[in-house]
Amino acid sequence: MRSSDSETLWASTPLILDADIGSAPDSAITVAIAAAQPNLSLVLTSDERAGRRARLARHLLDLLGRTDVPVVAGRELDGETIWTAGDSTPAESVIEETGVGAAVEAVLSRHNGEVSWVGLGPMSNLADLLSTNPEVGHRLAVTQAGGGSRFSPTPAERNIALDIPAAHTVLSAGIQPTIVSSAVAVFIFNTETVDTTGYRILARTTNPISVLLRSQMDQWFARFSPYNDQYGPLTLALALGADFIETEPANIELDSSGRMQIGRHPVTRAHHVNYVALGHWFTYQLAEIERYGVVRYQRTPDW
After folding, report:
1. Rounded Cα distance, 17 and 24, in Å
2. Beta bridge partners of 71
3. Which of 287, 269, 192, 194 shows the shortest CA–CA distance to 230?
4. Sign of CA dihedral 141, 177, 136, 70
């Protein structure tokens, strides 16, 4: 659903966002951008920490005027958690008590066709769904952030490394996900610093949404790196049909450490990005949030 003649189709296709919000700040920014889409139907959290991520997502969506979008806490994982949201989530933020499976089924039951799934964190929630109900996979158009080359000098990309068995499950399910790997996402022209336009947009207003997003940026810069790759927004843009990202079919699998290599599992792979157009799209989204305070429904502009 990424061709130029499919605007009506993608706009009416439910969107499920599976996000590790609260880690690198690009996840929260992606939730904010996704909130501008009228088809955003559900937000799940991955690598959850006792509901902490889900409460943050609920708080952000409420600020954005999307009280209609349910938020459900996903599976918790072992291991060290990156957290850049400080204490910015009110204790009274209320999340859905239903589980991930029931929440996804509720979305599927209201729609007869395909549902878009955008994954920004480890694939644990998706793997659980595909394991318990394999037929769900035939209804989901999956766009997943994650994956690194077998030629990388470091171990698996973080989204894969956090739950390698889940990544194996998803790749083996036969659903042909669209993969946005670090090879296209981790790039100088897809990076925010204190000197880039995106950050300056967030820094020039007291809008509570911009303040929250900027605070996460500041904590990331202070504690982890002076750079933040906008992995999530790139992945969302592809799922929304942006024509500045090219894809190609590929066959991959994971090596023993979780790095991607040529293999037997069919996927669609993002392989080229017009980063200038991506930058225009990204700053436009942040400027809209700054301008209106709450989101307006919008379609992805043609750049």
Report:
1. 16
2. 43
3. 192
4. negative
What distance in Å separates the CA atoms of residue 108 and residue 150, rounded to the nearest whole number? 36
Phi, psi dihedrals of residue 251, rounded to the nearest 5°: -130, 120
Query: What's the residue count for the chain?
Result: 303
**Tens digit of pLDDT for each residue in 85-132?**
887 777 778 788 889 999 999 999 999 899 999 999 999 999 999 999
CA-wise closest residue to 166 among 248, 254, 244: 254
Give pLDDT tens digits for 225-258. 999 999 999 999 999 999 999 999 999 999 888 9
Largest separation between any pair of C-alpha atoms in the chain = 50
**Chain mean position to CA 171:** 18
Q: Kind and range of the H or E element at 166?
A: helix 164-171
103 contacts 72 by C-beta, under 8 angstroms: yes
d(CA 215, CA 228): 13
Report the pLDDT value the prediction gives residue 152, as an integer from 0 to 100: 56
Residues 6+ apart with CB under 8 A from 92: none
* C-beta separation of 73 from 51 below 8 A: yes
